[in-house]
Amino acid sequence: MTGRFAAFAVGVLFSISGVAQAYAQDAAAKLDVELNALAPSQKGCMMTFVAENNLATPINKVSFELAFFNEKNAVDRITVLDFRDLPQGKKRVRQFDMPGVKCETVTRVLINDTPVCDGPATGECMKGLVTRSQTTVPFEG
Question: 25-42, pLDDT tens digit by residue?
Answer without folding.
Answer: 444 689 999 999 999 999
